[in-house]
């Protein structure tokens, strides 16, 4: 039965290859990175790979997108300590992940796209690179990829693993396909005991609960210093809408429209928040770079003056809203902010990572939807590093009140630092587990 299920799945993905190519072409219009090295998606590479250098294994890490790549960077730092001389094979599924991953490469390292999950593409990928071990970050389980690693005797693990209730229910509905894939992994290292229980329920061999790698993040000291310098120069407290997702900027604008006479959408914009009247300086950083232009247009249509990070030289320009339109600078933005509204938590999207904000000493106000980071959210609230509100209106009120209360803001910023320090250690534990598995 399992063989038939995998065969039908493989046939479906093989037939879907033209659709994938069309999707990549469409996405490349706004994100040119999707047009790069498309044959790699199908396990076809421009040139043979040189023989592995002596002295260290080729460690393959798959980090599908931006968040996973940032978690992989934390793990990779420890892996290079535990495995001196290792070479890295880094794969991704998104253009933002690949762009971020380029920063992690050292001489001798390799970076390609994740192979589309057909039997042929997976086989060509594994035989091309022959990694000593594969590490999938957080949630990425692909049936043919797992089966191919088992055939080629490549140990494959799921690290920093998480599984929310919605995903668990989906995996159980497709148990005929997902359960063999989870069961064929060599090891699973979960973030929390709750994640571990859900993963075990779908057949995963959980052998450790190490915590969340993102607690081990070390924000750029240079970015933090620059951000805090710009914050001190601001005439008003800075409130950040961090990693906002589609629809959340509109929610935020709707609340502001109830409080101030914003121009109706479609009318000529007029400046409505000037330096004398605005209680806070707003900073908006969309989660996805392909939305930077879209968000600017939305804000300007509401009558807001917008200044983009890419236009700054020595300091932010005067504007109603500063728009963070750069990648890899979240420490800068959190350093600028007195408090952050957590993107992805006001729309039912599960929330974004709040740990990075806490590591930068930036208190967080989050909405009701944090199921992707449920335990981290609960721990942050218990530590006084975050507070939860019912909706965007309550979030804006809470964030503005905190930003205006200097002593309380400073107290919560200190609690943020203590919160992240308390939960560090997952990166070292995971790296040492990799070493043990390689030696087995």
From TrEMBL:
Key words of the record: Cell membrane, Glycosyltransferase, Lipopolysaccharide biosynthesis, Membrane, Transferase
The record's catalysed reaction(s) read: lipid IVA (E. coli) + CMP-3-deoxy-beta-D-manno-octulosonate = alpha-Kdo-(2->6)-lipid IVA (E. coli) + CMP + H(+)
Compartments, as annotated in UniProt: Cell membrane
User: Can you give the residue ranges of the 3-deoxy-D-manno-octulosonic-acid transferase N-terminal domain?
Assistant: 38-217
Does the UniProt entry include the keyword Zinc-finger?
no
Q: Which InterPro entries match?
A: Glycos_transf_N, Glycos_transf_N_sf, Kdotransferase
- Protein's pathway: Bacterial outer membrane biogenesis; LPS core biosynthesis
The EC number(s) given in the record are 2.4.99.12
A Pfam family matched by this chain, by name?
A: Glycos_transf_N
Provide the family line: Belongs to the glycosyltransferase group 1 family.
Question: Do you know which PANTHER family this protein is assigned to?
Answer: 3-DEOXY-D-MANNO-OCTULOSONIC ACID TRANSFERASE, MITOCHONDRIAL-RELATED (PTHR42755:SF1), 3-DEOXY-MANNO-OCTULOSONATE CYTIDYLYLTRANSFERASE (PTHR42755)
Q: What is this protein called?
A: 3-deoxy-D-manno-octulosonic acid transferase
- Organism lineage: Bacteria, Pseudomonadati, Pseudomonadota, Betaproteobacteria, Burkholderiales
């Amino acid at each position: 039965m399992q063989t038939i299920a995998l065969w039908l799945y493989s046939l479906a993905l093989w037939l879907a290859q033209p659709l994938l190519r069309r999707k990549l072409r469409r996405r490349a219009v706004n994100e040119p990175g999707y047009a790069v090295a498309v044959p790699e998606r199908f396990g076809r590479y421009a040139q043979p790979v040189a023989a592995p250098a002596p002295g260290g294994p080729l460690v393959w890490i798959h980090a599908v997108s931006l968040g996973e790549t940032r978690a992989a960077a934390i793990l990779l730092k420890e892996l290079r300590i535990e495995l001196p001389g290792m070479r890295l094979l880094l794969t991704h599924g998104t253009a933002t992940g690949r762009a971020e991953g380029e920063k992690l490469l050292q001489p001798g390292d390799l970076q390609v796209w994740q192979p589309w999950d057909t039997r042929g593409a997976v086989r060509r990928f594994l035989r091309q690179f022959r990694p000593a071990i594969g590490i999938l970050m957080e949630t990425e389980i692909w049936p043919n990829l797992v089966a191919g690693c088992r055939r080629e005797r490549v140990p494959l693990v799921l690290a920093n693993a998480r599984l929310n209730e919605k995903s668990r229910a989906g995996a159980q509905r497709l148990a005929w396909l997902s359960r063999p894939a989870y069961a064929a992994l060599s090891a699973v290292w979960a973030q929390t005991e709750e994640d571990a229980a859900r993963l075990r329920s779908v057949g995963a061999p959980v052998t450790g609960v190490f915590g969340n790698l993102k607690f081990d993040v070390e924000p750029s000291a240079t970015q933090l210093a620059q951000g805090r310098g710009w914050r001190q120069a601001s005439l008003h407290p800075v409130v950040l809408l961090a990693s906002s997702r589609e629809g959340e900027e509109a929610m935020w604008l709707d609340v502001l429209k109830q409080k101030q006479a914003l121009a109706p959408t479609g009318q000529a914009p007029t400046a409505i928040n000037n330096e004398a009247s605005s209680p806070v300086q707003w900073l908006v950083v969309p989660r996805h770079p392909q939305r930077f232009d879209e968000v600017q247009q939305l804000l300007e249509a509401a009558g807001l003056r917008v200044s983009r990070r890419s236009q700054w030289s020595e300091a932010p320009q005067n504007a109603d809203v500063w728009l963070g339109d750069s990648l890899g600078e979240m420490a800068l933005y959190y350093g600028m902010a007195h408090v952050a509204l957590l993107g992805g938590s006001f729309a039912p999207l599960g929330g974004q990572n709040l740990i990075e904000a806490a590591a930068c000493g930036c208190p967080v106000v989050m909405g009701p939807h944090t199921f992707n980071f449920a335990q981290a959210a609960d721990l942050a609230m218990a530590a006084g590093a975050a507070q939860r509100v019912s909706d965007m209106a309550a979030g804006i009120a809470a964030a503005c009140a905190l930003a205006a209360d200097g002593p309380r803001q400073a107290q919560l910023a200190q609690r943020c630092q203590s919160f992240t320090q308390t939960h560090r250690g997952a990166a070292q534990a995971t790296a040492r587990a990799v070493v043990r598995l390689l030696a087995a």
